[in-house]
Amino acid sequence: MITEIGHYVLILALGIAIIQTVLPVLGTRLNDPRLAAVSVPAAQAQFLLICLAFGALTAAYVTSDFSVLNVWQNSHSAKPMLYKISGVWGNHEGSMVLWVLILALFGAAVATFGSNLPRQLQANVLAVQGAIAVAFLLFIIMTSNPFLRLDPAPLDGQGLNPVLQDPALAFHPPFLYAGYVGFSMAFSFAVAALIDGRIDAAWARWVRPWTLAAWMCLTIGIAMGSWWAYYELGWGGFWFWDPVENASFMPWLAGTALLHSALVMEKRDALKVWTILLAIITFSLSLMGTFLVRSGVLTSVHAFAVDPERGVFILGIMAVFVGGAFALFAWRAPLLSQGGLFAPISREGSLVLNNLLLTVACAAVFVGTLYPLALEAVTGEKISVGPPFFNLTFVPLIVPLLIAMPFGPLLAWKRGDLLAVAQRMTVAAIVSLTAIITALALNQQGPWLAPLGIGLGLWLIMGAGTELASRAKLFDASLGESWRRLRNLPRAAFGGALAHAGIGVMVLGLVATTAWRVERIEALSPGGTLDIAGYELTFDGVRESLGPNYKELTGVFQVTRGGSPVTTLEPSKRAFAVEKSATTEAGIYNALGGDLYVVLGDSLQDGAFTVRVYFNPLVRLIWLGALVMFFGGAVSLSDRRLRVGAPKRAKSKPSVAVTAGE
Amino acid sequence: MTRKQRRGVLIGLCLAVLGVAVGLGLFAMRDSIVFFYSPSDIAKMEMAPQQRIRLGGLVEMGSVERDKGTTVRFVVTDGAKTLPVRYTGVLPDLFREGQGVVTEGVFARDGTFRADSVLAKHDENYMPPEVAAKLKEQGVWREGAMVDGKSGGVGVQ
Fold first, then answer.
1. In this complex, do B132 and A163 lie within 8 Å of one another by their Cβ atoms?
2. Mean pLDDT for the stretch of residues A218-226
3. Residue A351 dihedral angles phi and psi, to the nearest 5°
4. What is the pTM of this model?
5. Hey, what CATH class is B36-147 in?
6. Are A612 and A589 in contact (CB under 8 A)?
7. Partner-chain residue, chosen from A73, A396, A397, that has the shortest CB–CB distance to B150
8. Which of A152, A223, B63, B143 has the highest CB neighbour number within 10 Å of its CB?
9. CB of A47 within 8 A of CB of A53?
10. What's the CATH number for A518-618?
11. Which residue of A has its CA nearest to B156?
12. Pick from B17, B89, B122: which is nearest to A356 by CB?
């Protein structure tokens, strides 16, 4: 019964979404504000209905109702409750329902909190959101319906893929989708502005918080996926340049560029056309990510050709929205007025450089991800583009950006003085150079690039500090005066500096763990020992145990350092009977300066096991960096100016909103 | 600086970055595309010593042997030809006899393929696309055995 209600309200939501698309556009065309205003309750109703549908599906999972095909395929009565719930979005159909739920949530937010938006803009934005919802609701109802029944109902389900039964992965998709779908806001605003043929700084002020929120979610979603890969896959790697990863990384790169170009637009009324284009590109890449992951095209172009229904549908959605938006852009963008002038060396100039390098780096990832697919589809030739390609293209493009990054926030708008900025960066430069020289001296056998990378990481962190210090006039004014200035800085300034420092923290982790990781693989009998990075591991043997839905073989390792005990590590292998599959649970000890990472391998004769041990120096800084970036975004989002953001206030008190700071 | 000059600087910068990117891309493409071969393909080709390739196929039933240490030997087959592989290290969870596998490495002088990595994806429905296509081409593809009856996700069904 609940399932049928879920099915019904999903179709009802489709009807509402059609109304939400058509009436506001009609209303703005016919100049009838009452018709246009329908968009607000429609967006709210649509959100409520999809909530109900999602709730119905969740109820089916929680109660293990195996008469629902989707539940039978992806759940099992012996599964822990957390994974019963995360199983809702751990499969194709359910994840698409989550997708539209988040879409509707954003739409409802614009409807509810957007009362200070110009009416026409709000109506158009909601209409575009409605159109996206129509497309994806049709997709769900026609090709991926999660509410189909099975008759007779099987006794038990087939289970969820064991490697997906993990807390980090349970929350990875919602964050990722919130990021993907959040960029639809920037897209809708861009298309609405194109329809209006009008765009101003207030537009950017409206788009920025949404983009920032989406960017934060995507950042944390990608970081979670990487963290999961690190401890769950048992290889100690954190990023594989896998097409699925790239699919989420490309919108992140474009979204980062969008955040920065929207800044120029908001403050200086420049780069308007480019910002609109970037908003369209970012959401297009999100749609492409959805297509890549959901169509089966990554497994094989052939798999896609065999069962093309879903893939072709998403491809159709992409063609309509991306093609439509670009066509609209080509038609209407020339109408948008050109913005303010600036010298190449200026804050605007540095943000242009940021955008240029980010988009080109994004294009490099795009080529590396799609070229093999295109080649196979066209010629049938199969190639694989691996990490070496990305290391050779992406890294050289992003490093100049990182080197230039600390300069940007220190440059003045319109016309900057590079020499003066360079002087302010002296301390940061000295610290970084000292670190490089020290690291080079300590690292005479290791890769020579690594010390430079460490220097770069410190350069970024120090650069962020320099920005705050120079804004507070530290050492130029009295300490009390600096403190007062620091306290009065807008939160967005702290947010930006934090996010930039977060990149530096991440660079430190990436460089250290890539360059100085130690790996040992040995066959150990019970009582055998192994030395790594100053730690001594003693293998005590294995024990077997039963988990809620798996059998577990746990190896016990005593870790000592210089004779004194440090910890006991218990890596294990889990065998899942229902899913006929196995997972590796690494034993990880977070030591000072790095992770000790132990994986239990295959069983050999006489109770011996293959054991793989890594020491990953500073590896946690990678995810700590992502967290700092997320936190920076949150601080910036909490800035009053972003929340208020009201164009009306800007009219009455122009000096407060426009020139108060950066 | 005039407006024209500013625009010139901007366009010049864009072209320079794009040029560098295209150059890097072409250079990386030339160097790093690792082709995937089946044992039948390898039998047909001239192999330079120490040339890195990827070899893929099914792990032959009953062929997995371990010595006392961490070295594993197994045979990769595509139904027509077979090739012995030697690998030192921990095999992925989903490595099994009769299942698809892709290994990367070089040929030793004795004709054994010395793999330094054995690929298995974190989704049991996932198979390196090349393997699935090759196996299908050669008719060794066994739907049920490979996919284990699960749907959803990115399975080859």
1. no
2. 93
3. -75, -30
4. 0.87
5. mainly beta
6. no
7. A73
8. A223
9. no
10. 2.60.98
11. A303
12. B17
